[in-house]
Amino acid sequence: MEKKREEVTCIKAGLLIDGTGREPLTNPVVVIKGDKIAEIGKESEIKIPEEAKIVDLGNLTILPGLIDAHVHIYGRRSYSPAEEIITPHDLAVIRSVEDCWKILKAGFTMVRDLGSTIALSLKRAVNEGTISGPRIFAAGRPISQTGGHSDIHYLPREEVIKKGALIADGPDDCRRAAREALRDGADLIKIMTSGGIGSEKDHPRYPQFTVDEVKAITEEAHRVERRVASHAEGVEGVKIAILGGVDSVEHGFFLDEESVQMMISRNIYFVPTLCLVEVYKKALERPYDMPPWRLKKQEECIDAMPKSFMMAYKAGVKIAAGTDYFGPPLRAHGDNADEAITMVKYGMKPMDAILAATRNAAECIGVQNTVGTVERGKLADIIGVQGNPLEDITVLKKVDFVMKEGRIYVNRQTAI
Ligand SMILES: [Zn+2]
Prior knowledge:
By secondary structure, the protein is an alpha/beta fold. The protein has 14 helices and 19 strands. The strands form five sheets. Strands 3-2-7-17-18-19 form a six-stranded mixed sheet, with no helix packed on it. The protein is globular, with a radius of gyration of 21 Å. It binds zinc ion.
């Protein structure tokens, strides 16, 4: 049988920031064969295949497709606790499909979803080409202790059970819950080792799960080459997660020096979800339909978050960008570049913020061999933005070109 000839595309642009941390390349040419990057260089240095389709992006800066390492795609459009019950499941699915397109259009070619039952099916829909969206790496159902962050305590118990929440207490039960998550097809496991803001009856500072409970989960995950990410806001919860063997700490709003050193010595990724500090500040002016207990806890985190972030950054913790956006106002999908922008606002160098949203996020997920940088042999996830993000990081929101796995989804230069 004759093998189908691979399509060859050649992208020309004003600047390339390749996501490796190297100096940018001016007037780059990138040759794509099929779904992979075949050549990168100056026009004078490389041979452009005759059959190549030329995509001239003019002055745009091209970068690796951005990666959001912490999202929830489940079609929420409000902060009201009632929405969990009154939104029909089908409507939530339809909104989620819209969110997938918004995320991809915004230049995010991959996301790690840290808790959504819909995301496991969205992932299949994207992979089979039914819908357009980012590549989804999904945790499915997160695991929480009784009364923990994802044991939605403002709902009656039977509603939580109906939603299929994974609630576990004691190491044996945690092991069972981990196996259930894996049975669902989870790409990684998400756990909760502290209280949170969106959970009514706990507090970010309260620890959840014991080290032994976390160990049971990480052991099960690591046996089948899956990672574990922990929601941990207070420092005690962060330490329980680390001692229990997790692979990434999410949020870490109240870090201390010891927890920072623990992350460094164990090579653990930190996903600070720093953009939430801006959300919490804006909510002081306009709270939308956030319940009073949410508003109170948000306010209590505002001062600590940038301090924890900078403490970790200066000490050299590996940081990946994740927004924790889930759909409502202020946390809408499509605004996922907010995290890199906020990181720069609070003191990170623009190049480091770009790395946090590309190479580092890919490493945090464990997909650095295929995506996260524009390098020969990698999947062709390439975006183009108006202007130079090293000079003005906000241009990450001015996305004019999106290619995922060699296929062009957005091209405002030639209006495809
Ligand atoms: Zn989250």
